[in-house]
Write a structure and sequence with these properties.
With about 400 residues, this protein is of the alpha/beta class. The chain contains 14 helices and 17 strands. Helix 1 links the parallel strand 2 and strand 3.
């Protein structure tokens, strides 16, 4: 066992513990750590466990005594084996303990999916990795793993993350999907089978929407959409804001599941089973909150520049329009043009609200796209009296 203290930086003292901490050296270990802490009495203390090989119950008691004196104490870079000891003994509930994460590279890897929160890569024939855009994304990863687990329990075929890794400065989730191919890739390889893939796509979508979620298990997408609307207050005419707010508030509450980012790059086919990926947007809500983002994926993002849809989804503009129209027809089970148009208009309004807010926040100099969203909202709003999708 050896103790090494780094020079205090930004009010943090990091102490590296190397080797084994057991009955034979626990007292010595504690004394050395306390000596280092006394040299920086005002610093927050971090114990780096990167080179810690083993810790016994005597070592755990040392940690407890140290934390009693320094409540802010946290441990970092704990190996899976060390972390398991802390987890089994309840330490992870009493203090901050961060696991060490393996580093992987996605350089040159195929991008098989992309969303607002991350990019999904295939790193080898058996593994995909979702890299989160936000470097501080551990909470997001844990959330996605948990909602995916809940979906699987409810009978939804999902990919479950088995590991968390580092990719550059970001965190990522690893999934085992042996030789699975995205629906985008399948459509490009077999364009003559596009109708078969759309049938499978819609069948799973209906299964998702028919799934009842226990209360509180997933976020309420209606609240998310209300947040989009409330952000637009002052950016759109008051009468438009009031009507949109009333329309969204009037959408009935429901405990049925929606995916939230349902497109052909987020569905995989593995051994004739359709599997969902990119689960961070999983929630509950009316299907209109599902079809708004679906409209954006296949049409809205590319109305001014068709290549935007191709770059995002990976299929041609013409294929994307066909997928969108056929999804509506097969989901609603009708060829009635009037009914289809009513449903499409509701989805479009939700989509343009989302795109207007997103554009104004992220790229406010994109005046052409902002004007495009405003124009469509102006035209759609007088024609819509309810947003409930199946009314």
């Amino acid at each position: 066992m050896s103790i090494t203290a780094e020079q205090e930086k930004n009010g943090v003292l990091t102490i590296l513990v190397e080797g084994r901490v057991d009955t034979g050296n626990a007292s010595e270990t504690e004394a050395q750590i306390r000596a280092e802490i006394e040299k920086a009495p005002k610093a927050s203390v971090v114990i780096d466990c990167e080179k810690l090989e083993y810790i016994s119950s005597a070592g755990l008691r040392v940690i407890l005594r140290l934390k009693k004196n320094r409540p802010e104490l946290k441990l970092i870079n704990a190996s899976s084996e060390i972390y398991e000891i802390f987890d089994m003994t309840g330490f992870t509930e009493m203090m901050t303990i961060e696991k060490a994460y393996k580093t992987v590279s996605v350089e040159g890897c195929e991008i098989i999916g992309e969303g607002s929160n991350g990019i999904v890569y295939r790193t080898d024939p058996e593994t995909i990795v979702k890299v989160y855009r936000d470097p501080d994304s551990l909470d997001d990863i844990l959330h996605e793993r948990e909602v995916a687990r809940k979906a699987l329990i409810l009978g939804i075929p999902t990919a479950i993350s088995y590991d968390v890794v580092r990719v550059g400065e970001s965190y990522a989730s690893r999934f085992e999907l042996i030789s699975a191919k995205s629906f985008t890739k399948l459509i490009n390889a077999n364009p003559d089978k596009i109708d078969t893939y759309i049938d499978m796509y819609v069948e799973l979508l209906k299964h998702i929407h028919s799934t009842v979620v226990p209360a509180g298990d997933l976020p309420d997408q209606k609240k998310v959409v209300l947040g989009w609307v409330e952000w637009l207050k002052g950016h759109i005419p008051d009468e438009q804001y009031e009507k949109i707010l009333a329309l969204v508030e009037a959408v009935p509450e429901t405990d049925h599941m929606i995916h939230g980012d349902y497109h052909t790059k987020n569905l995989m086919l593995q051994d004739d089973e359709v599997i969902m990926i990119d689960m961070d947007t999983l929630s509950t809500g009316d299907p209109v909150f599902e079809f708004g983002p679906i409209f954006l994926a296949y049409r809205g993002f590319g109305e001014l520049d068709h290549s935007a849809v191709t770059n995002f989804i990976g299929v041609s503009w013409e294929q994307a329009q066909y997928i969108w129209q056929e999804t509506l027809k097969r989901y609603l089970g009708t060829e009635d043009k009037e009914l289809l148009q009513k449903a499409e208009n509701k989805a479009k309004l939700i989509g343009y609200i989302r795109m207007l807010r997103r554009t104004m926040k992220r790229t406010p100099d994109n005046t052409e796209l902002i004007a495009h969203c405003r124009k469509n909202i102006d035209e759609l709003l007088p024609t819509i009296n309810t947003l409930t999708f199946l009314d």
